[in-house]
Design a protein that fits this description.
Layout: E1 4-9, H1 13-24, E2 29-35, H2 38-48, E3 52-56, H3 64-74, E4 79-83, H4 87-99, E5 103-106, H5 119-127, E6 154-159, H6 163-171, E7 181-185, H7 191-202, E8 206-209, E9 220-223, E10 229-233, E11 240-244, H8 255-265, E12 270-274, H9 283-291, E13 295-299, H10 309-316, E14 321-323, H11 325-337
Parallel strand pairs: 1-2, 1-3, 3-4, 4-5, 6-7, 6-12, 7-9, 8-9, 12-13, 13-14
Antiparallel strand pairs: 10-11
Helix pairs in contact: 3-4, 4-6, 4-7, 6-11, 8-9, 9-10
């Protein structure tokens, strides 16, 4: 089997060496070349035709975000961003994911010296992605601005790889008075806070990073914080609950933990949607929701960056419907307005 060919782009010689060493430790990956700038990388892309590119966020001459935008517009390819944990860096990384980067890896630091341990796995996932030119900027929320009234429902959404793009597409179709919405997106700590801030700027409802005990309010979206806690809903279905715990299905926070709590505590008043992502997290929880009487749906294969979690949900019979990404926002809103 041919190895995955990677182009490493970073202005730091030390960081290029660290990325290369981490990737070459995996026998299925070959570092085809490295570049110290966007201009150098542009020429190497033409020469080497790599399967995946790792890209530094902050570089001189042309920053990684500007280069990524050009790459995705002119020569779409799988890209894994390499970022620091500074506030500015994470905001830029979230922008990169919104532009179409498949994933983001944190640079090693004293607090997280082994962060590149997950890099080979993320490159392998990226290599399996068929990147398309970015979709047009999503339209603002349409309809329901007056006639829409959430019927005492709670919306739950799960997403992973490709989820930033997907969440933007879904939530920009939500009205300002949407039903309370809880989201688990697989992401490292700090990144989820920046994701919530970005979504808050783009969407009609208010978007916050969830905190323990926060009441579920109409017109508010709560994003699970990355780290060592799972987001659930309280026993009366009216508040966010953050529970410490180990990974479930390899993830913390886990979509299954969120969905299962909705099934148990909200039941038929819940609406669930499982979006793009690798693996099976969320599939069983979505099935639990459907069995409890909730309305459920999953993203279709054609519009998914990785058709893993939605496929698992369809195989289990967890999703009543399978929709293209552009249809999921309106479908979820309609289900949350239904009286039955």
């Amino acid at each position: 089997m041919s190895r995955i060919r990677v182009l490493v782009v970073d202005d730091s010689p030390t960081m290029r060496q660290l990325v290369t060493r981490a990737l070459q430790a995996d026998g299925e990956i070959e570092v085809a070349g490295s570049a110290a700038s966007a201009l150098e990388a542009r020429e190497l892309i033409k020469q080497l035709n790599p399967d995946v590119m790792t890209l530094d966020v902050e570089m001189p001459e042309m920053d990684g975000l500007s280069f990524l935008e050009r790459v995705m517009r002119l020569r779409p390819m799988p890209v894994v961003m390499v970022s620091t944990l500074t506030a500015q860096g994470t905001e830029t990384a979230i922008s990169a994911l919104a532009l179409g980067a498949v994933d983001c890896v944190v640079k090693p630091s004293a607090a997280n010296p082994d962060s590149f341990g997950e890099l080979p796995a993320k490159v392998k996932v990226a290599a399996a992605v068929k990147r398309r030119p970015p979709a047009p900027e999503p339209a603002p929320a349409l309809g329901f601005r007056g006639a829409y009234q959430p019927a005492d429902k709670v919306i739950a959404i799960g997403s992973s790889t490709g989820g930033v793009e997907a969440l933007i597409a879904v939530l920009t179709r939500f009205p300002p008075n949407c039903a309370p919405t809880v989201i688990t997106q697989h992401m490292p700590p700090v990144f989820t806070r920046n994701l919530a801030q970005r979504l808050d700027r783009m969407c009609a409802p208010r978007v916050l990073e969830a905190t323990h005990g926060a009441p579920l309010k109409v017109g508010t979206v709560y994003v699970a914080p990355g780290g060592e806690q799972h987001l659930e809903v309280s026993s009366n279905g009216q508040a966010c609950v953050l529970k410490p715990g180990g990974p479930v299905n390899g993830h913390c926070p886990s979509i299954d933990r969120l969905f299962t709590s909705l099934a148990r505590n909200v039941g038929a008043r819940a609406v669930g949607a499982l979006l793009t992502g690798m693996g099976r997290d969320g599939a069983q929880g979505l099935l639990d929701m459907r069995r409890a009487g909730a309305r459920t749906c999953a993203q279709d294969e054609a519009s998914s960056v990785v058709y893993g979690m939605p496929r698992a949900a369809m195989e289990l019979g967890a999703a009543e419907h399978q929709y293209p990404l552009a249809r999921i926002g309106p479908a979820v809103v309609e289900a949350s307005a239904a009286r039955k």
